[in-house]
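Protocol step 4 of 6: structure prediction from sequence.
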Amino acid sequence: MIPNESKVFLVGAGPGDPDLLTVKAHGLLRTADLILHDDLVSAPILSLAGPQAMVVNVGKRCGLKKITQLEINRMMIAAARRRMTVVRLKSGDPGIFGRLAEELDALEAAGVPFEVVPGITAGVAAAASLRVSLTDRRKSSRIVIVSGHRAQENDYAEKTDWKALARADTTLVIYMPGHDLSGFARELLDAGLSPTTPAVVVSRASTPQQRESCTTLAGLPAVSRTNAPLILLIGRSLERAAQRTSTPLHTPAFDEDLTSLLQMIGASAPTPSSTEDPERRISQ
């Protein structure tokens, strides 16, 4: 390791909502000297950077490369060697389709110290916004995360084996599915999934611009084109999203049944909240 270097932090910015940024990520943005961010990192998150930070867009979105991966690696290493604190800011979680492995290889080869700071990935945020669980012990016992996009460098790779991935007990989380959803529908139906399997397309998860379309595998080809970035969720655990109505959720007041349940575990029930006692909480 070369002496007198600062650390490079490879940080997940989450899906876009600044409230979903981790406390650690927020603190690093405030103190960083150099922030190298992807295109999909939202403006509200970038606004959290400290006044001393140099903020540089190094995005490679939709095949339009402003800078190569090699150049990004060289910038991180050069800045660290100048004793700068570097934040490499990636949308979602840096380890989910974020080229994290390539950057770790470069930093390790150069002897530059680094730390990975995880973030909320877009697939999880999309499910949360739909108020569904990606797993359900009654329906879905596993999650498969897969990319629908293949970079030019990976053209040699074999076609995705959907028969090996698509099972009735699986929730598929497909990143970057593109706009030709009919292709996914056809391949997954050929792989053996039922035409009635729930499918949800979520655009710009967690942001004010979020849009979602709830359908089935057979109905995917009819989904209207929406703005990227997109997440495609497929699986029986999504049935709640399709069945849910717009009826507001009813939150029951504390009652004697809750008191009895709390007493069973040795806890005391709170009295109804009031302006006179705003800090009262359930206590053990």
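Step 5 (inspection) to follow. The beta strands are 8-12, 34-37, 54-57, 86-90, 114-117, 142-147, 170-175, 198-203, 211-216, 230-234.
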